[in-house]
Amino acid sequence: MSDEELLALFENPDTRRNAFNQLVRKYQQKVYWLVRKMVVDHDDANDITQDVFIKAWSALENFRGDSKLYTWLYRVASNEAINFLNKKRRRFFVPIYDVENELSEKLESDPELSGDVIQLKLQKALLKLPEKQRLVFNLKYFEELPYEEISEITGTSVGALKASYHWATKKIEDFLNDTD
What we know:
Number of helices: 9
Family: Belongs to the sigma-70 factor family. ECF subfamily.
GO molecular function, one term: sigma factor activity
Structural class: mainly alpha
InterPro entries: RNA_pol_sigma-70-like, RNA_pol_sigma-70_dom, RNA_pol_sigma70_r2, RNA_pol_sigma70_r4_t2, RNA_pol_sigma_r2, RNA_pol_sigma_r3/r4-like, WH-like_DNA-bd_sf
Keywords: Sigma factor, Transcription, Transcription regulation
Organism: Dyadobacter helix
CATH superfamily: RNA polymerase sigma factor, region 2, helix turn helix motif
Number of domains: 1
């Protein structure tokens, strides 16, 4: 079912719940993995994904359609993930370096993220990036979104996104070369 059809069903009080359930089924995995790549931990990613859809339920009736529905959901999800990481850092007065170490340890011990050595190195390199750079890299590299859509999600200009992606790939490359 297209996003337009889902939104039309959502507008009708009789079909609202069904439309929302279909929307969740359509986007839950994508939202989960976007969040998971940011926060690493499965339980945290599940909680944040649930929060994203709770916010979507509350705000969907005001969705104007200026962007695509998944772009809007990704924006909500990326903001929730970044807010989660910032709260975690503030709550425990933990410097960003310690948060990176904690996430890196979770990467190594998580059976769902088992991959080869190269995959693990890439994930560790991503953890070294600032959150917004990591988000841009994930959206461009893993989600294969065009810069224009990433711009809608992040509220950042295309030029700044290209620069951010360039610096992210450079940092990842440097990290991978240093750990050989």
